[in-house]
Specification:
Layout: E1 5-8, H1 13-25, E2 31-38, E3 41-43, E4 46-53, E5 56-60, H2 63-72, E6 74-77, E7 88-97, E8 102-113, E9 122-135, E10 138-148, E11 151-156, E12 167-175, E13 182-195, E14 201-208, H3 211-234
Antiparallel strand pairs: 1-8, 2-3, 2-4, 2-6, 4-5, 5-8, 6-7, 7-8, 9-10, 9-12, 10-11, 11-14, 12-13, 13-14
Length: about 240
């Protein structure tokens, strides 16, 4: 799973948390921009800081934000212009009440949000979809775990024919969620890396789709986003 941020430690973790708390004490009543991810879809709403006490900060948040914080057990907070530092922050969830739209965070730290560097929206698949990787005269079967307009993560049984940098042709079998039909989408791709010590392996590829293929992938991703957002809306915790 993609790591959305890197934690930055300036002093010790304890000292950094105290600095964040001290800054928060001066900002009660102000809004902060929260960021979480649900199945690779960003969930970001403003949250109001209502109290700081005993090294914990209480926020009023959007219902969807509360749901994802309850699942991830943390929240990213974007840097605030009035703070004494410029880094983003991360806090651990101490208490979450979705019905009351309330969260209490503790153990704060500085963070560098890496997911902002993504060029494309990525979606996780609940049911892996079939992919065929054409390598010379062989066809390697794979299962798509997540996909974006720029690439995919694919489970494969072997890595011997997939060295880093190798260019391959691929066929993605993407369903039309509304009709139930399957579209076979052809793309050229480059192997970025293959991870795992034993089979099955996780193969990351970068796409170079033609216009028609790009439209088909985009259409599927948009449908999948709608599914994920609906699922989050209906999520009961």
């Amino acid at each position: 799973m993609f790591q959305y941020f890197d934690q930055i430690i300036k002093g010790t973790e304890r000292e950094d948390s105290l600095v964040v708390i001290q800054n928060l004490k001066e900002m009660i009543g102000k809004n902060f921009s929260f960021l979480n991810y649900y199945k690779e879809i960003p969930v970001s709403y403003d949250a109001k800081l209502v109290n700081v006490d005993n090294e914990m900060a209480e926020f009023e948040v959007h219902e969807y934000q509360a749901k994802v914080i309850a699942l991830e057990h943390k929240a990213l907070i974007r840097a605030h212009e009035k703070f004494s530092f410029r880094e983003d922050m991360v806090g651990e969830a101490f208490y979450v009440n979705v019905a009351r739209k309330k969260v209490i965070l503790c153990n704060f730290g500085y963070a560098k949000i890496k997911s902002d560097m993504r060029r494309f929206v990525r979606v996780v698949l609940d049911k892996p979809l079939e992919a065929e990787l054409i390598v010379e005269d062989d066809i390697l079967k794979g299962s798509i775990r997540d996909v974006s307009l720029g690439g995919a993560s694919i489970i494969v049984a072997s890595r011997e024919q997939l060295p880093q940098g190798r260019e391959i042709s691929m066929f993605l079998k993407l369903p039309d969620i509304s009709s139930g039909s399957i579209h076979e989408v052809g793309v050229t791709a480059t192997v970025i890396k293959v991870t795992g010590d034993n089979a099955p392996y996780n193969c990351f590829v970068e796409f170079y789709p033609e216009k028609h293929s790009q439209q088909q992938i985009s259409y599927y991703i948009n449908q999948r986003q709608v599914e994920i957002i609906k699922e989050l809306k209906e999520q009961t915790l």
